[in-house]
Batch of 2 targets.
Target 1
Amino acid sequence: MEESKIQADLASIRNMMERSSRFISLSGLSGVMAGIYALMGAGLAYKIIYVHGDKYSLNLAAKGGNPFLQSELWEELVFSPTIMQLVVVALAVLFASLVTGYALTSRKAKKQGQALWGKTSKALIFQMATPLLTGGLLILILLSRGYLGIVAPACLAFYGLALVAASAYTYTDVRYLGICEIVLALLAAALPGYGLLFWAIGFGVLHIIYGTLMHFKYDR
Amino acid sequence: MKVPFDKLDKAFENRVRLQIMSVLMVNESYDFTSLKELLDVTDGNLASNLKALEKEEYIIINKSFVGRKPNTNYQASAKGKKAFQDHLNALEQLIKQQKM
């Protein structure tokens, strides 16, 4: 048994251990694109809330009142034009990010010979879905009770938890992104009124930084 | 110094068997279809190599049904894990000797 055979054996052991347990086809560029969409969405949201804002906007929260609670009457809040517009913007950002992520990741999976819908990607999605669905439903319930200020910190916190959970099934680096999102979530909760700013940093700026780093580390 | 070639496990001389064992070392269990996709080998090739590992008692086979489809899952046995680790140690020693 000569050296080259040993080297090839070790390389194949390592490759199999990694590819069988982790989904390593996530594209860095899709992170960058998701960040750009998020920043565009945050810009639109800023205009909706602060420029054309009505009485439900964040900067008009009652003085001395609960900073997270905008309205006791949920119909009044949830069906207000401001909130409806924000929901449309949020859904558009989510949709654009998912479509771009899917396209770029399937391209990379094909290049790496990893199944897009295999054992590892299923495990990854399940790990992320649990905290994301929990968070999503919790936010909807609280929003329907008028707690608008809870949206940004809760989005960031549950997304961060989802990333930390997912890191066991993809690049370990995802964990650091998750921890950063959680820290931002706690800051956003401590500083009511700056939710949109923290949301833009967490989903926009961090995604662009992370995506760029991943692109240069794994995609080339 | 004596080269420990005899410490290398004959069962892992074959690349496919080595890869199957690598997969089962880091995953609790793996099913036939996923293994086939991952290793990119034919049904027959994979089946015969799994049979060889089974004969050595390095893997445990669990047959079950998902709906009506038969689903076979493979797991590394304690004996198999030990054998794989010994094989890795032998490879490590070989590399160290060649560097000297």
Note: Residues 9-99 of chain B form a domain with the Arc Repressor Mutant, subunit A fold (CATH 1.10.10.10).
Target 2
Amino acid sequence: MRWLDQLRMRILMIFRRGRANVRLDDELTFHLDHQIAENISDGMSAEEARYSALRAFGNPALLREESRASWSWNGLESFLRDLRYSARTLRRSPTFSLMAILVIALCIGAATSLFTIVRSVLLRPLPFRDPGQLVMVYEHFRGDWANQDGFNYNVVSPADYYDWRAQTHGFQDMAAWRWWQFNLTGERDELPEVVTAAAGTWNFFPLLGVQPVFGRTFSESEDHPDSNVVMLTWSTFERRFSGDRSIVGRQIHLDGKPYTVVGVLPKEFAYPYATVQVWVPYQAVATPESLRHHDWHQSRVIARLRPEVSLANAINQVEAVQYHLHMQYLNDPVAEDAVPRSMIDDLAKDVKKPLLLLMSAVACVLFIGCLNVANLLVARGAARQKEVAIREALGAQRLTLVREQLTESLLICFAGGAAGVLLSLTATKWLAHAWKDLPSAQGIHVDGVVLGFACALVFAAALLAGLLPAISSTGKAVFAALQASSRTTGGSLSRTALRKTLLTVEIGVTVVLLIGAGLLLKSFVRLRTTDLGCTTDNVLTMSYTLPQQKYDKPEKINAFNEELLARLRTMPGIRAVALGSTLPGNSWAGDDVFTIPEHPPIKPGAELPDALNRLADPGYFTALGIPLLQGRYFNMQDRDDHAKKVIISNQLARQYFPGENPIGKHILDSARDKAALEIVGVVGDTLWQVGQPTKATLYFPLFSGNFENSFGFSLAVRTVSDPLAMSVPVQKQIAALDPQLPVSDVLTFDQVIGGSIVNASFSATLVLAFAALSLLLASVGLYGVLSYLMTQRMTEIGIRIALGAQREQVLRLALVDGLRPASFGLVIGLGASAAAVRLIQSMLYKTEPLDPAVFAAVAATLLAVAAIACMLPAWRASRLDPMQALRTE
Amino acid sequence: MIVVDNLGMGKPSDLVQGTLDLLILKTLLPEQMHGWAIAKRIQQLSGEVLQVQQGSLYPALHRLEQQGWIKAKWAESETGRQAKFYALTAAGRAQLEKETANWNRLSAAINLVVSEA
């Protein structure tokens, strides 16, 4: 029954604790009284009896504590007591407490938000069956150009995929998918719209283990070029078809062709991006010819590993097949190798670096925040030095005192952490919304792990902020503190040194952050002001795709485009119109390899000349302000059979016609025409995307009647005034020509550019915000330390002034005192930055990591801010009234 | 004279603390007693050799009570004043036997070593 007794004691100790305290006193008193009585009866005097009894008994206060220490719940009780003390202490200095809580809240909030995103994007397994067994497989070229970031994972050609799947045995299965776009037209009177689509092989959904909510996935027999089945993603199902289940089995019209809806995908399926609205079978968007090509790279391949086969082994098999294909098609761009990449990295490829960068920035801010709180606590500790010394002399254990101080920082961090987590809920929502590039295959939300992370942060912060001050203010120099007179002239030099060290570290980290922010900002400004190579002011852009069903002959397409151009060019408010396939700054779109018949043939296997392909109407270059460097632009005669012409970009001329005149020479484009195209002009370079190097480009006449199976067109309209005001009139002209034709991406050129640098702007802005926050924290710290230091030296300064020191001398003295840690920190920070900037080098655009301007600006800013922070306490010291200072003692 | 005291510098060693527990349990075996009487009894029984620092009994008593080896109740003492009387529980009796056996083994072992030298 021992456990029963123990339980009884435990319960007693919760509910009768106050009574137990009284009884303990009674018990001890009883003992002493008994002993005194006995001593008296032995013949001692009353006083002697008392002293003797106490001697035999020991220190009653201490013994009481010891007895209490053996009670249950003692740990909890003392914790609650510490908590009460700390809360009281914090309430006594509300400004300090609020500041500290706010600092910690901001830091922990930011860290939690970023961690939420990092976890969703980089850490949490994808919501598929056995996600660890899934890998992406890409083609890999050995050429130098292919080994730059972004190009080393080359999308796969359909024929390569089919050969891999048929000829290797390392994977359970392989599936492929590619991007597509459809015009979705209404069954009754709904507006037409452009929908983002993906085309996946029939085994795509079974491979991932994704089950449709309604209906079924594609069958093997439905995966062929004339296929007419479609699956809806949940968002489309809800939005466009108002969640009506009877849509399964009915038809919808994509590009004017009827497709039967066979299934609806679950809500949580958002691979590869939430923007995908419909899925069709892989071959539904292919021609039988395109499926035979080993050099038409456009698909992504997902493979599921066999449990017993290693990834290296499986990939080796694919590589063997691929190398064989390469040797077989030496004159085509068929890659030599294959490379795997984990699915989660594949999705996060664009955001991984910025995310990790932001995460490190936040870690720095959190570190600075903790140092700041530590700094403030050290100051507080100094003020309470005597109290602590007295308590230690009376027998308080050092551990108890340390624990008490830690409780204080724990309380601050806990309050800050709670506020921070609330803050992060909003911040995360905003981040996930504003950061367009974040993959959405995983929902981004706070969960248990994130909360656990926040708790761990709170404790880490509390420990970091509390331990140093607690240790420094206890344990040593008890006697020194007690012996020290009330004069504070020489007091606590070591503590000041500690504060200065903390401050130096703080400033050092701030400098690193500032330099990172400065570099990213400079790079962003460079991006922002990049010259795209064409006019971007007052230009409205939009895209449309002419469905093949209706526009089945080149003449029909030409007629539509011509009519549209004619209508727009006569519209008031429009200066010029350009029509092509892909506008500058919009995307890579497509590239072709080509040969030059006038040049000696290229050795089989050597790298082939390669250029972006673009269509352009005769007015394209003038309307967009792309300069003509040689030859002529296209004209209205360059059409149909007379369209064997091509215009090349300056980059192409430099790269492939060095030292010769390209005009009149020919281009033999592998994918496009069997006939050679005559070069009629050379135009200025444009960028295919802001932040990317220029790439050789081929322009083909728009009215050649050869569209290479791609019927998407992009329109650029240069307007007299606000381009967005013209968007509705222009769309009305399109609708007048074909009411079933939806228009997409209605944006100004500035918006297009803004969209492509949104990532850079994001990282730059956030890192700058963090840097500014830490600069503020550092200056507050600097101000606090110097104020404290000056108060400490008040007597000394008073004496100096009384003895005739000039006010300016005192001012200088104080300033130098404050600026010394700042300069140390600056030097350390600059040194650390020089190493740290290498890590962000790849994120910088046309900005050197050791940019002297940024380094100088940061140094100047820091010193200026530090000087301002020091000025007030220094000025106050120099204004000191010596009489008053001496009397304060 | 041996001073049994767990109030020395730092923590009492396990040996000393265990010994004090054993002494208390043994003392309480015949009848219930209050703290002062326990201290006196230990002193008498050991022929004044063991001088327990009286106060140090109390942390030990409270610990034993929390652990369920002994239980306490308030009752009138011989002088008519209320005092806290401690008594062995059944579990405490068993524990006493175990500790006594341990002690015998230990002291026998020490004896062996000491007499050998």
Note: The first helix of chain B runs from residue 14 to 28.
